[in-house]
Amino acid sequence: MRRIVAAILVMVTCCLLVSCATNSVQRDLARRFVELTDEGRIPGFPPGSDGEIHMEQSAPYQRVTYPVSRDIFVVRATGTSVYTYNFVKLSKESNWELVKAWMMNQDGERTEIKLDQAGK
In total, how many domains does the chain have? Predict the structure, then answer.
């Protein structure tokens, strides 16, 4: 769990290096990812899992236009596969929604991960 917290702190710190609008979008996404993880609603990444978490970065000072889409990448400590979670935010006021997820194994084979209604 400490690794997850440390990874989230790294993501938030990276967010501070970009413009205010982009910073807000990415901080919002990091917060939403943590919420869904804590609730057990991120498929393939149960609460308490350890691993490396990376966020797709926007170009500094890039203007945010809605809808906006971002990916979060996770490599669990227990494996080598990369899990990708695609989130969409329809407007400034809306919540981030998990819309797609997939796993890429070390051989480059992609497997779609089924999302249940709770994960959306």
Answer: 1
